[in-house]
Amino acid sequence: MAIKVSIPTILRNLTDGAKSVEGKGSTLDELFADLDVRHPGLRGRLVDDKGLRRFVNVYLNDEDVRFLGGLETQVSDGDNVTILPAVAGG
Amino acid sequence: MLTIERALVDKIVAHARADHPDEACGIIAGPIGSDRPTRYVAMTNAERSPTFYRFDSLEQLKVWREMDDRDEEPVVIYHSHTATEAYPSRTDISYASEPNAHYVLVSTRDPEKAEFRSFRIVDGEVTEEEVTVVDSH
Fold first, then answer.
1. In chain B, what residues touch A62 (CB-CB under 8 Å)?
2. Which residue range is the domain that position B6 belongs to?
3. What domains are there in chain A, each with its CATH number?
4. A1 pLDDT exceeds 80?
5. A9: pLDDT confidence band, cut at 50, 70 and 90?
6. Which of A9, A30, A36 lies closest to A20 in space, CA to CA?
7. Average pLDDT of every residue of chain B
8. Contact: A89, B97; criterion CB under 8 Å
9. Which phi and psi (to 5°) does residue A58 adopt?
10. What span, in angstroms and rounded, lies between the C-alpha atoms of B16 and B22?
11. Global pTM?
């Protein structure tokens, strides 16, 4: 078992076109670090030095992780993580 | 070029008018690769602001899953400007992340006449495109 991560179109160039990938970790931060080993550059598109980038939405199962613990959100085997580009502007 | 049915243009403009002076936003989904906007979905502007919009994140997840199930993509992503012209702002450009989408801007600054324009936004480059309004596809 692992954690399934759905990848949006705009980031699939980093996953050889895959719509979803699998990873492991006990927090979202660890999961992203693990994914970055096999998909270099992915973490940098999701996280900057201040935390989760405001241009992306990350969901654990059906919850927005901003309302959970952000990068410190606990994850475990069997969870589904979904990444979507935030749609926003001025 | 964006080809869009008149009824969908009317829905977008009506939504923009209804939410004025706050910005309104939403999408028109269509079959993947068709470049044809067919299914109108008004979204909640989580910011409820006259100068900013952001899709409500949980609503977005639900709508994106529906599109996935139906083999659709967001063909049009629209929002309104309520005091300025219908042209992408710097913030709009920095957030634009769908290179295949038509970014539609509506301005409601004139209470009589709505501006309706469409753009491609790819890698920070804005290109305006022609809008062809048809009665039906």
1. 58, 61
2. 2-134
3. 3-85 (3.10.20.30)
4. no
5. confident
6. A9
7. 96
8. no
9. -125, 130
10. 8
11. 0.93
